[in-house]
Task: structure prediction
Amino acid sequence: MIFPNARRILVAFLLSMLLFVTACQPQASSRFDQVQETSSQQKSGQAVANATQGSSFNPFFPAASRGYERVYTQEKKGFAEAKLKKDGKDLALMAISDTRSLPTAAAKFKNTTKQIVGYPAVEIGNTQTAVLVADRYQVKVLSRDASFTASDREALLKQFDYQGLAKLQ
Result:
């Protein structure tokens, strides 16, 4: 035998050709390709793009007072959130959101008869109370401790600056 490595070289060449030929073939479309194409063409995030910047909501939260502490925890386009703390304990979570980011959020206020400071309000389960301002901004207080009751949530909701919030439009 003149070329003892010829077999190895031939096998390596054939394997590389096999990989080259199979890699260059067009892939068969999967059942998800049409869905991906459709969703890519949609104007996603359009509602959030039109939403108010979350930092704009901060001045409308109640100020910290009488041993309570307000700690901002999240802020993004269309949403701002703060915790109400006392003695290091989370009592409530306060949030303001632009319902343009989530249009169905305002629907729950349509048939309510309850009002807080002249704005439509709803109880959501046993731990949440929400107010709709100017048919656009949802102000919500969520109890994070059993001692923080529905009447405490309502009292806290009365401290928000709704007139200022309504002018954001």
Observations:
- The radius of gyration is 29 Å.
- The beta strands are 68-76, 79-86, 89-98, 115-116, 119-124, 128-133, 137-143.
